[in-house]
Amino acid sequence: MSSWQEACPDDVRLAIEQAHSSWRPVIEAGLQQVHIANPNYFAGLTTSVYLPNQARLFAAFSMPMDDVRYILMGEGPYPRADSATGYCFMDGAVKSLWSDEEGGGLSKKVNRATSLRNFMKMLLVTSAHLQQEATAGDAMAAVARLARKPENGFVLTLDDLQKNLIAQGFLLLNASLVFREDTAPAKDAKAWQPFLQTVLSALHQYQKAHAIRPAVLVLWGKIAEQLRAMPEAALYEQICAEHPYNLSFIGNKTMQDFFRPMNLLNNLPERKIL
């Protein structure tokens, strides 16, 4: 039987080296399962332009298995090279979260990243900085004025927000690890299911063996929700919601209640690396 190493693009192999050591055997086992299920898949990747590139495919696995408390599953990477980072809905083109223009609210790049914009507005409704019926215009500008003042304790950059999510134990994955303009996202997501099954199974076994409280599986969007059919998904408590690119996500009560205790838009203490 051939192995994934023989067929995989070099960038995929380099990406494994960026993952935390606790994840590398799991990633390799998952890639082999993808190859077994579809022996031509990786050969197809070598002839495609796919994102994320620059060895960022497994960036989300940079956190140790010990630290995972939630598995947040989006649909797929952003369709732009500078935006696709290997973390679900973390747009690498975004630096500042807030506009520095008079009367501005969220930064232009946050507004372009629809999922990130709606996620932030949901958090602001949850923290009572916005009213659900007024999340734009003057109301948003008023929040931005508060946020830009360091003494008010808001996170200022996407990097800050991502650090807060990781500090809370979020493994930020996508149902499809790659985006290709010539391939339907649902098709790539199906190809990556054996990989995700391997990840979910390995994490469940690890947490059970180390007496770690089982992680919660958070599924965003129809493609991610299809993962519920996998036996490995049944090992986890599950929370489902529409994808954040839908405006209705801002008012999703389940998401509001879930994220309320985390205070993700406030500066959190630095996590100590042991």
Overview of the structural elements:
This protein has about 270 residues and is an alpha/beta fold. The protein has a domain at about 5-85 and about 165-245: Uracil-DNA Glycosylase, subunit E, CATH 3.40.470. The protein contains eleven helices and six strands. The protein has helices at about 5, 10-20, 25-35, 40-45, 110, 115-125, 135-145, 160-165, 185-210, 220-225, 255-260, and strands at about 50, 70-75, 170-175, 180, 215-220, 235-240. Strands 3-2-5-6 form a four-stranded parallel sheet. A two-stranded antiparallel ribbon has the order 1-4. α3 packs across α9 (about 185-210) and α6 (about 115-125) crosses α11 (about 255-260). The longest helix has 25 residues, at about 185-210.
Note the topology.
Elements: H1 4-7, H2 10-18, H3 24-37, H4 41-46, E1 50-51, E2 70-74, H5 108-112, H6 114-126, H7 137-147, H8 158-167, E3 170-174, E4 179-180, H9 185-209, E5 216-220, H10 222-225, E6 237-241, H11 253-259
Parallel strand pairs: 2-3, 2-5, 5-6
Antiparallel strand pairs: 1-4
Protein traits:
single chain, 274 residues, alpha/beta, Uracil-DNA Glycosylase, subunit E, four-stranded parallel beta sheet
